[in-house]
Amino acid sequence: MDTVQPPSRSHLFTVRVWLEDLGHSQTEWRGEVHEVLSGEVRYFREWPTLLTLLQAMLAEQEGSGAPEHQVENQPPACSPS
User: Fold this and answer.
1) How far is Cα 17 from Cα 20, in angstroms, rounded to an integer?
2) Where do the H-state alpha helices sit in the chain?
3) Rounded-to-integer distance, Cα 66 and Cα 57, Å
């Protein structure tokens, strides 16, 4: 007998960070977060934005109707703080 399983409440993300050369001996951290199952990718420049992105992506997956946070869609930079 087949039973319908509720949607998984587990999510799988990968986070990639790299040091971007800006020239003139300046660098900055950049990153992307990838939601593996949906394929959605978002970029961040600052570490606090990573948390904001994860929270927004989870809210969207849950269909909570929570307002989406302001996020960046361009590959940016992180300040290691």
Assistant:
1) 9
2) 47-62
3) 10
Question: Is 53 exposed, middle or buried, given 0-12, 13-18 or 19+ CB atoms closer than 10 A?
Answer: buried
Using CA atoms, how far residue 37 sits from 12, 16, 42, 74, in Å, is 7, 16, 14, 21
Q: How does pLDDT run along the chain (81 residues), one tens digit per residue?
A: 567 666 667 889 999 999 999 999 999 999 999 999 889 999 999 999 999 999 998 888 777 443 444 445 555 455 554
Residue 70: other Cβ atoms inside 10 A? 8
